[in-house]
């Protein structure tokens, strides 16, 4: 890291103010003002790449909407704080090289076509677009993200939309897509309703939307409390979905459910056995005594966060079709 970036990060670490946080007092999906107060996320700061981002003094709780069952953070970083951190750190964090072979096979089986105009939301370094190219799928390969990854142009064969999917003034070419993919994106939304309005515009009638996200009502987060789930201890994750909430918002925006699968996170299948065994040992320690596990982590100067259980099926994958 160069000196300039280091100074910038120190600034983020020491000078965060209330204006850098957005306090969520109503449900961002259904606007319900009632909320079920949840526990606070343990620790006092996020880590993102090399940046340390202290929580606001009030802490960050995981509250639940009693009406639509969405779980959401009491405080989330503003768009400008998020951009400031992403501008220096995103490329270090988004070095994903997942192959998407299974996901693309499922999609092409469904559409029965080798020619598809595809838009990947949260395109990062373009590994999904790379797979479409490699598997000979013709058509546009477009991407949307907050910043353009320097390696993306190798796989892009269409437009790059710079911004957020929940931007009320999203600027794009206007030609609707056969398929829009959102792997690990929907938990980042500030305004889920606006995002679904944009998705409705972006996708052709009869076209498909694939979503993968964490499942907050799964056994693992529910057993140890959603506030302790490793998945909420991520700076850029704002809202947490269950099947019920996702299906409801999708149907309200003209989508029908083709399939819904409960599964481990997509990258788990590529994990080496030795890594899996190390993870399982940590998970065993955590399940025997979560409090002691966290204390030991703190004692050894490690990040105080729940281990990632390689066996937990704590993610959902939905395939939706725009029918209205
Ligand atoms: Zn709600």
Blueprint of the fold:
Layout: H1 3-14, E1 21-23, E2 45-48, E3 51-54, E4 62-64, E5 71-73, E6 75-77, H2 79-93, H3 101-111, E7 118-121, H4 127-134, E8 141-145, E9 160-162, E10 177-183, H5 192-202, E11 203-214, H6 219-224, E12 239-240, H7 243-252, E13 255-263, H8 273-288, H9 290-299, E14 315-322
Parallel strand pairs: 7-8, 7-10, 8-9, 10-11
Antiparallel strand pairs: 1-6, 2-3, 4-5, 5-12, 11-14, 13-14
The protein binds zinc ion.
The site of zinc ion has 8 residues, from loops.
Strand order of the largest sheet: 9-8-7-10-11-14-13
Count the domains.
2
Please provide the ordered H/E string of secondary-structure elements.
HEEEEEEHHEHEEEHEHEHEHHE
- Terminal CA distance reads 50 Å
What shape does the CA trace take? globular
Task: Give the name of the CATH architecture of the largest domain.
Answer: 3-Layer(aba) Sandwich
Structural class: alpha/beta
Would you count the extended β strands for me?
14
Q: What is the helix content? A: 25-40%
Name the ligand types: zinc ion
Percent of residues in β-strands: 15-25%
Total number of helical segments? 9
């Amino acid at each position: 890291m160069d000196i300039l970036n280091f100074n910038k990060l120190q600034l983020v670490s020491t000078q965060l103010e209330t204006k850098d946080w957005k306090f969520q007092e109503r449900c961002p999906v259904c606007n319900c003002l009632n909320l079920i107060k949840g526990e606070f996320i343990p620790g006092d700061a996020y880590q993102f790449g090399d940046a340390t981002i202290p929580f606001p003094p009030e802490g960050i709780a995981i509250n639940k909407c009693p009406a639509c069952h969405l779980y959401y953070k009491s405080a989330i970083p503003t768009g400008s704080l998020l951009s400031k951190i992403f501008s220096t750190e995103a490329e270090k964090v988004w070095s994903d090289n997942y192959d998407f072979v299974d996901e693309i096979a499922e999609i092409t089986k469904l559409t029965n076509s080798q020619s598809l105009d595809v838009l990947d939301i949260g395109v990062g370094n373009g590994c999904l677009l790379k797979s479409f190219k490699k598997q000979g799928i013709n058509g546009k390969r477009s991407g949307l993200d907050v910043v353009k990854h320097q390696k993306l142009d190798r796989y892009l064969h269409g437009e790059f939309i710079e911004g957020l999917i929940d931007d009320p003034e999203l600027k794009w070419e206007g030609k609707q897509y056969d398929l829009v993919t959102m792997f690990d994106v929907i938990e980042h939304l500030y305004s889920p309703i606006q995002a679904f309005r944009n998705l409705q515009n972006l996708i052709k009638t009869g076209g498909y939307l694939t979503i993968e996200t964490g499942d907050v009502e799964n056994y693992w987060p529910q057993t140890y409390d959603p506030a302790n789930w490793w998945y909420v201890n991520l700076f850029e994750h704002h809202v947490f979905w269950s099947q019920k909430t996702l299906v409801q918002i999708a149907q309200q925006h003209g989508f029908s459910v083709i399939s819904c699968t409960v599964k481990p996170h997509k990258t788990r299948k590529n994990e080496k056995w030795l890594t899996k065994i190390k993870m399982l040992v940590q998970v065993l320690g955590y399940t025997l005594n979560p409090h002691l596990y966290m204390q030991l982590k703190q004692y050894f100067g490690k990040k105080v966060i729940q281990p990632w259980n390689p066996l937990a099926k704590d993610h959902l994958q939905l395939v939706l079709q725009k029918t209205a």
